[in-house]
UniProtKB/TrEMBL annotation, chain A:
This is Cation:proton antiporter. The keyword Oxidoreductase does not apply. Residues 86-102 have a biased composition (Basic and acidic residues). The lineage of its organism: Bacteria, Bacillati, Actinomycetota, Actinomycetes, Kineosporiales. It comes from Quadrisphaera setariae. Residues 86-108 are annotated as: Disordered. GO terms for molecular function: sodium:proton antiporter activity.
TrEMBL record, chain B:
PANTHER family: ANTIPORTER SUBUNIT MNHG2-RELATED. GO terms for molecular function: sodium:proton antiporter activity. The keyword Hydrolase does not apply. Coiled coil: none annotated. It comes from the Bacteria. The chain crosses the membrane at residues 6-30, 65-87. Belongs to the CPA3 antiporters (TC 2.A.63) subunit G family. This is Na+/H+ antiporter subunit G. Keywords: Membrane, Transmembrane, Transmembrane helix. The keyword Transmembrane helix applies.
Length: 108, 131
């Protein structure tokens, strides 16, 4: 089992690094919020694999707290951003975005 | 390794591979909704698979198994709410290109609300009306 949990932790580490790249690069704040949400989920998986690896249940309350904290944080960020009007726009979609808004009646 | 150990190993590795797929998808997909589509995998199915694998390892310890079941339950309840809020914020802020959508029901609903067809429901929060 040690080898399996090591491999699982390695895969989770690589995927967490990929998500962190998106967290740093993400063109808008909403992309960063989505990436942070996925990062919390991967962190939950990692702590769960750590519980299986050590065979001790010390980190199970950490899992419970983290699952609720990730939800609260992502909802707080998204609600906060929803109030602001000028959300920064990604470069790659800016032209298409303005076209769509003009066609559909100008809602920001 | 017993048979349950093999089952647990398969569950742990498949959950981790779903997390890897989410990482690749978050990095390579072009807009917010596609990234959310990729990111949902470890949020729901991947986490449930990993938790099932861990529960098989901890199975004599009933309190830990129940706590892990609650973790999975919380994630099942909260992940759709957060994704819904995030997708709607992406829709309203214009981050996602909406001209590629086949059907845009939220836009239709906003237009109907603006036309006063749904007086009971709350109108869309539109800071800068087009009129």
């Amino acid at each position: 089992m040690g080898v399996v949990t090591d491999v699982a932790l390695g895969i989770l580490l690589v995927s967490a690094l990929l998500v962190v790249v998106r967290l740093v690069r993400g063109p808008t704040t909403l992309d960063r919020a989505a990436a942070a949400d996925v990062f919390v989920a991967i962190l939950l998986c990692g702590v769960a694999v750590l519980v299986a690896r050590r065979g001790s249940t010390v980190f199970v309350p950490v899992l419970l707290a983290l699952s609720l904290l990730g939800f609260a944080s992502s909802v707080a960020v998204v609600r906060f951003l929803g109030r602001e009007d000028p959300v920064e726009r990604p470069d790659e979609h800016s032209a298409e975005g303005t076209d769509a808004r003009e066609q559909q009646g100008g809602t920001p | 390794m017993s048979a349950w150990d093999w089952v647990s190993a398969v569950l742990l590795l498949s959950g981790s591979l779903l997390a890897l797929a989410a990482g690749i998808g978050m990095l390579r997909f072009p807009d917010l909704w596609m990234r959310m589509h990729a990111g949902t995998k470890p949020q729901v199915l991947g986490l449930l698979l990993v938790l099932a694998g861990v529960e098989i390892q901890l199975v004599p310890d009933a309190s830990a198994v129940v706590a892990l079941l609650f973790v999975g339950l919380f994630q099942l309840v909260t992940a759709p709410v957060a994704s819904h809020l995030l997708a709607r914020a992406g829709h309203r802020s214009g981050v996602v290109p909406r001209d590629q959508l086949v059907q845009d029901d939220l836009r239709v609903f906003e237009l109907e609300c603006a036309a006063g067809e749904h007086p009971a429901s709350s109108p869309p929060k539109d800071p800068t009306p087009s009129s």
